[in-house]
Specification:
Blueprint (H helix, E strand, L loop, with lengths): L2 H24 L2 E7 L3 H13 L8 E7 L6 H10 L5 E4 L2 H10 L5 E6 L18 E5 L5 H12 L5 E6 L6 H16 L2 E6 L3 H13 L4 E4 L3 H5 L1 H10 L4 E3 L2 H5 L4 E5 L1 H16 L15 E5 L1 H6 L6 H6 L2 E2 L1
Parallel strand pairs: 1-2, 1-3, 3-4, 4-5, 6-7, 6-8, 8-9, 9-10, 11-12
Antiparallel strand pairs: 10-11
Amino acid sequence: MDRRSFIGMLRGMLPLAAIAQQAALNRVKRLGVIVGSEPFLFAAFDASLRQLGWVPGENVIVELRTTRANTADSATYAAELARMNLDVILVGSLPPAIEMRKAKPDQAMVIATCPGLVSNGFAATMDRPGGHSTGIDELPPGVTAKRMKLLKTAVPRLSRVALVSTTPGRGGHERQLADAEQIAPELGISVKPYRAANLDELKTALGAIADDRMEALATFQGAVAILNRQVIIDFAAAHRLPAMYQATAFVESGGLMAWAPDLVEQYRDAARYVDQVLKGASPGDLPARYPSGYFLTINAGTAKALDLVLPPALLAQADRVI
């Protein structure tokens, strides 16, 4: 074939290549979702996804799986979704992310909330994850120290704080504990961790906190704590323990205070990540990030029940007082 014929052949092929590329972009995409039983979070994700042009049943098929508290649902659903030809999977927390990686290591995945994307091997670095996953890491440097400072401000007489840790995976627990231990001498407090991987262990840990006569408690990031938050809140109320929590939902359910990110906004961010992956981006090329902000929420009714007179400056600092 001479040069002119070869060039002519290439010109003839270009429209076909463009058509094939457009067809790939236009085909109905398949999205897997594994989230917990907090419907408002998935609703925020779904609304954002629709705003970005993805309409379930039209240009995207959504395989939604909702996990129940204190079950093996994460592993079950991960194995189920791994058998499907999905373009990307959204997981709401670290446990289903770990199970999904076991079931299908090369699955493109966005993690809406994760205590330690790098330490758990889902990202090489925050700026360039480099693998098959990206998302939002809920452990920016100093977040646990900030929680300890706020708790001490609320209860100046405080000297012994129990750290309730249900953080799964690798690195997240250690990072939060190191943060708390580093700030403790400055605040004139001692801290002690109590670990739990499930509800039974959580109840045992709370019993140990009572036996040790701890004066307050703080929760670390972890789905087990959030899913069983009423157990922790009721325990704190029964033993009259001031508490600092990892999520605003604790305070809305009767807990004292939380220094926490906006979970709704994190799920909106997760939708933006999913949008980019559905349009052809690799998760490993999408920088992971920390939450855009942390907010102080205080339950004034709970403070009153504990006979706590909160400093006016602390109340003024609060983004929301219930």
